[in-house]
Every structure is written in C-alpha cells, then in structure tokens.
Amino acid sequence: MEKVFKALADSSRRRLLDQLYRTNGQTLSELCGYLDMSRQAVTRHLSILEDANLIVVVWKGRSKLHYLNTEPISQIYERWIGKFDRHRIEALQVFKNELEDDESE
User: Fold this and answer.
1) How many whole angstroms separate alpha carbon 7 and alpha carbon 13?
2) Residues near 19 by beta carbon (within 8 Å), at least 6 away in sequence
3) Which residues make Cβ contacts (< 8 Å) with residue 63, sequence separation at least 6?
4) Phi, psi of 103 (to 5 degrees)
5) Average model confidence (pLDDT) for the chain?
6) Measured between alpha carbons, how far is 4 from 73 in angstroms, rounded to an integer?
7) Nearest alpha carbon to residue 64 among 27, 34, 32
8) Are 63 and 27 in contact (CB under 8 A)?
C-alpha cells in the first residue's frame, strides 16, 4: 500500500487516473494532452502508477494502452474508509428505526 499512497499523493497522477476513469484505454499521447508537462514527465508519472498497480498496460499492435486498475483503491477503501462508513450507516439505521417506532405509537 505504500506505493499506492505515494502514487496518489501527486495531483498530476491523480489527474491521470481521473482521465482514465473517464475514458479507459488511452495512449501516452492522449494522456499528455491533459497535463502541461513534457512527454517524459508524463511517462514517469505513468511508470509510478503502473508500479503501484493503479494502472495496467496492454499493447494493441504498436499502441500502448493504459487502463485504470481499481483494485488497490478498493483495498484502501476496505481498510481505511469502509470501516468508518459502516458506523454512519448503522447510526442512520438506528435513527430510522427510532423514528418508525415513534410513528407507530
């Protein structure tokens, strides 16, 4: 998870992930259009994202396509975010049950 957090810490890499979320399977040239930086800089960002397993690369002929891999983000959600959401959902359910009980009386 260290690599995932490091990769997500940079706003340019998050923008690349956002673009892949909007349109999955983009080439380096397409992704470069979204960032005001050199092609080499975008390549380095993509390499970090790939190393963190946040994107996967598929070669289609001579084109290298980048795809979003949501599994690492799902793992972060399960470990760090989901457990906090469960308490809110349970509190809302208790509140709803109390309101229903008050209405039936």
Assistant:
1) 7
2) 26, 31, 34
3) 27
4) -70, -35
5) 91
6) 8
7) 27
8) yes
- 27-65 tens-digit pLDDT: 999 999 999 999 999 999 999 999 999 999 999 999 999
What pLDDT shows up at residue 92? 79
The CA-atom distances, in angstroms, between 75 and each of 27, 50, 80, 81, 101 are: 26, 16, 8, 9, 37
| Cα of 35 vs its chain's centroid, Å | 18
Q: Is 102 left (phi over 0), alpha (psi -120 to 50) or beta?
A: alpha
The pTM of the full predicted model, rounded to 2 decimals, is: 0.77
CA-based angle 78:83:87, to the nearest 5?
Answer: 150
**Which tokens sit at 89?**
């959902």
Q: Would you tell me how many other CB atoms lie within 10 Å of the CB of residue 46?
A: 21
CB 16 within 8 Å of CB 30: no
